[in-house]
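For homework, think about our next protein:
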Amino acid sequence: MDKNYELFIEQLTNGIHNITDIPLENIKFTNKEGDRLNITFAEHDDAYEVCSVRVDEVYKAYHEGAKLNAIVNYISNDVLHAKNYNIYDKTKTLIDYDTAKSRLFVRLLNCDRNSDILKNVVHKTLGDIALTVCAIVDNRENLISTKILKSMVEKWRKTETDIFNEALENTYRATPPRIYKWEGVLCDESYAGESFMNDEDVCDLDKSFSGNILSTTRKTNGAVAVFLPGVAEKISELLDSDFYMVFTSIHEVMIHSTGSGVDLKDLKLVLQDTLREATPSSDYLTEKIYKYNRRTHKFECVTD
């Protein structure tokens, strides 16, 4: 390990310890599947409460000019916030399926970066994208959620397919899909996108290289919109063609008609530039381009 990197981890660990008063033995570095700092801030008879920090990401931010004290304070505040939020007690209410059912939703994650987490979590995989089932623990101030473990589904006496479909339906109801056109995004701060799923909606999609921005009413984690029930079918109907999906972040996906003459190489270059220059590492989803095939009703990965 690089000595500067090792020193950074040591300073980060000590800084978090000093602010949170969490014992040093409860702040552990691991590199089994990605460099992480696991901070155990509470222990119960049947569970631990842990905050996990991607060390490589904060180290990159440090090299790009972020102050070490600012990084330590930011992480420590998150840990203390979680510690004071009684997450454990609120999560235990999810043991009852009738309570948990309405709280389920789907969030997109990159498979490779989260392979360790996904092993025991209910999800479906498309290429390097994981459609992950989560549940809302608390949303009074900020949305706090937890991923649904496969063992939990067994306790509910449900199938993973049942749980996944329920989560998709909930996600659609809570955050309906919206098309965001460039002229609205660039010129109107209050622009809230355009509804397109209902028969009475009037929404002309852009069939040129510029494409269309697809997200949800909430926008946060809005790239999931393309996988919500009926959405891909409706978009292909409006475009009268298959379409490419360029995931510029977890929050939105660019939709491009395959009939527009757009070149996959150009899309890939645009995506690479966007991910490098505009997408925070924490919002990254994939570098691959996907396509919806309207004949087979399936999603396909079309780049290596």
About this structure: The chain has a mean pLDDT of 90. The first helix runs from residue 3 to 20. The chain is about 35% helix and 25% strand.
